[in-house]
Amino acid sequence: VQLVESGGGLVQPGGSLRLSCAASGFTLDGYAIGWFRQAPGKEREGVSCIESSDGSTYYAEAVKGRFIISRDNAKNTVYLQMNSLKPEDTAVYSCAADQGCFRARWKGWGQGTQVTVSS
Predict the structure, then answer these.
(1) Residue 16 near residue 81, CB atoms below 8 Å
(2) Could you give the CA distance from residue 52 to residue 59 in angstroms, rounded to a whole number?
(3) What does the pLDDT look like over 42-84, one tens digit per residue?
(4) pLDDT digits (tens, 9 = 90+) for 13-53
(5) Which of 30, 31, 42, 112 is close enough to 97 for a disulfide, judged by CB 3.0 to 4.6 Å?
(6) Cβ neighbours of residue 31 under 8 Å, at least 6 residues apart?
(7) Closest CA to 83 of 95, 67, 105
(8) Separation between Cα atoms, residue 22 and residue 98, nearest integer Å
(9) Are 19 and 7 in contact (CB under 8 A)?
(10) How many CA atoms does the CB half-sphere of 19 hold within 13 Å?
(11) Taking the CA atoms of the chain, what radius of gyration do you get in angstroms?
(12) C-alpha to C-alpha distance for 68 and 111, rounded to whole angstroms
């Protein structure tokens, strides 16, 4: 299981970015996919997750109402649409796979993609 993130970059406060999490060598269908982020000097935190079974989605309070997670099984990709970005969203964003959003046995971590929110 290996995932590859892309779509990060530099954006001004209030701007938007869409991150992609693509599977390499396996199909995402059947896995819950979680997005995580780690800012300098801070621990990694969960941002959002989407289940495989019924498509249920979950968000951290800090991003609720601004971020949207979705999956396109035909493209073997999960997306994280990030709107109304704030400087505190600056971090390396990574995705991982598990059998469910709350099993805490994440695997397939990618190298991450840097998101920088700054004017």
Answers:
(1) yes
(2) 16
(3) 999 999 999 998 999 999 999 999 999 999 989 999 999 999 9
(4) 999 999 999 998 888 888 999 999 999 999 999 999 999 98
(5) 31
(6) 1, 52, 97, 98, 99
(7) 67
(8) 14
(9) yes
(10) 33
(11) 13
(12) 21
